[in-house]
Amino acid sequence: MVTTNESYKKYVIDDLVNHKGLSHPVKTNVIFRIKTVKINPKKLHPNPDDEFSMEDIGPNWGIVSDYEKTIVLRQKRNQELFDEPLIAVRLNSGGYMLLNGHHRWMAAINVRLKKVPVNIVNITHEDDVKQTIRKSDRNKCITIDFDEVLYSDNMQNEDNQLKFPFNLIYKKNIRENASLLIEEFHRLGYDVWIYTGSYLSEQFIKGLFSINKCSVDGIVNGINGKKHSINLRALFREKYNPIVHVDNEMLTFVNSISKKYEMIDFNVPSEQWASAVVNNVEQFDLSSIE
Questions:
Q1: For 43-67, what is each residue's pLDDT tens digit?
Q2: Other beta carbons less than 10 A from residue 65's beta carbon
Q3: Is 282 helix (H, G, I), strand (E, B) or coil?
Q4: Distance CA 70, CA 96 (A)
Q5: Residue 87: which of 11, 176, 25 has the closest Cα?
Q6: Secondary structure, 3-state, 213-257
Q7: In whole angstroms, what is the distance from residue 2 CA to residue 106 CA?
Q8: What pLDDT digit, counting tens, does each position of 241-284 carry?
């Protein structure tokens, strides 16, 4: 059994070296993604862009050890070994790359579990973004953080609850007046892109917007590493000018050519948020950023 930090790091480094350049994430089918599956942990591989895999940071022995103890204890009590599944993306080599749950995976390896629960998800591929951008005839863009701005627990209220049967599928709704906000952005000539780290499926997110009678132009889901993020930003800068980032209390206007930006702070009650965002976008002279 692995018992030291150095042993953990060696295992991870050896795995990264063995798979470097030999595999990359690919899409998995809908049927495989609608349920949690049990997978041999040896078919799972660490994400090379995760801190877990970085030699100067690497796995934390204490965290792994705690997970090992929990697994062994729950085995004795015949309980579920994990509170929630690991999250991974399928690789073209036939294995899976971890997106969340690296320390639990290492603990499972160490106590010799034969199967672990895994949710298989799809992350956004650059080709998908390229194709969506190519189809658009707009040259301005709004980006919104789906998790923090549109779908946060803090943005829920009684007047915006979903009714049967949709409340059986979706535990919560997008924030109040978000659909009107997106409609206004389209009227002003913007593509609307949302980004999320929740790994919710694209079908799930699109369905939620459809229920609210609106649609977004693109979804960036589960950015896979720094290089992937940089490439996507480059694609956006080539297509859109300006790019406007919408947060809960701030708008950031970015000129893609000069790379200059301007930020506008605003703090209004939740029910006035959508109209305040639209008003600020309308009033701001985007061409003034040189």
A1: 999 888 778 877 777 778 889 999 9
A2: 16
A3: helix
A4: 24
A5: 25
A6: CCCCCEEEECCCHHHHHHHHHHHHHHHCCCEEEECCCEEEEECCC
A7: 9
A8: 999 999 999 999 999 998 888 899 988 888 899 999 999 998 87
